[in-house]
Amino acid sequence: MSSLRLAAAAAKATRTLRIVAPFRRESTGFATKCIGLLGSAALSLAAASVLDEHVPRCCAAVVPAAGPGEHVLPEHLRQSWQAMEGPVEILPIKGHHFARVGSLAIYSNFYQQAKETPGEEAMGDTSFVFLVPFAFCAIPLSRAQRRVRCDFFIEQKIMFCKAAAMGDAETYQAIVASESSREVKALGRKVKNCADLKWQRIVCSVAAVVQLLSSAACARFKRI
């Protein structure tokens, strides 16, 4: 696949040279040199882009990802909830099986769209590609390794982000490969090198990223 992409990049660079070539000044050769440099730069950039897709990299210091949740800590949420006044309606949800709790199942971290929601498979909307933010990666992961095709399964994404943040490559791969909510829950509890302070610093960011991207990809969630 990399060879094909490099070939495509080379073809694109060649087309660029053909467009620029008519404007060169043959008498001095100056433009010819510029064209050569332009072609080399285009090929170098294209090659770097392809390599970046597959070269594992890790974040020097795990931090919250940019966006909603970036500056939020669990303590902030507690303070916000405690500041609420008047009657507050609470929606209790027990279980994640559609047959048991109906459409409320999607609010569970363990809800799996393809397995639990009748008729959803026919819509071709039971999985999507989730990109683990680089900010969460304490283990070397290429962009290709950070792209995970998965179901609407919140807990799985939270747990493999947690494993990546704690530097546990083995558990990260195991959670990514798992299709069982029970197994994911068990693996999440076994993440090695788990540092509570580090997790508390990024957990709201992880939750926000996971929930927003998953909800945007869930057909049933869009209809509520």
Q: What is the domain tally? A: 2
Our count of helices gives 11
**How many whole angstroms does the radius of gyration measure?**
24 Å
**Average pLDDT number:** 74
Helix content: 40-55%
Largest sheet: 2 strands, antiparallel
H/E series: HHHHHEHEHHHHH
Strand content: under 5%
| First-last Cα distance | 40 Å
Q: Tell me how many strands there are.
A: 2
What does this 3D model show about the protein?
This protein has about 220 residues and is mostly helical. It has two domains: about 1-55, no CATH class; about 75-220, no CATH class. Helices cover about 55% and strands about 5% of the residues. It contains eleven helices and two strands; from the N terminus they run αααααβαβααααα. The protein has helices spanning about 1-20, 30-55, 75-80, 100, 115, 145, 155-165, 170-175, 180-190, 195-215, 220; strands spanning about 130, 145-150. The protein has a two-stranded antiparallel sheet. Helix 1 packs antiparallel against helix 2 (about 30-55), helix 7 packs antiparallel against helix 8 (about 170-175) and helix 7 (about 155-165) runs antiparallel to helix 10 (about 195-215). The longest helix is centred in the first third of the chain and has 25 residues, at about 30-55. The two termini are about 40 Å apart. Mean pLDDT is about 75; it is low at about 1-50 and about 120-125.
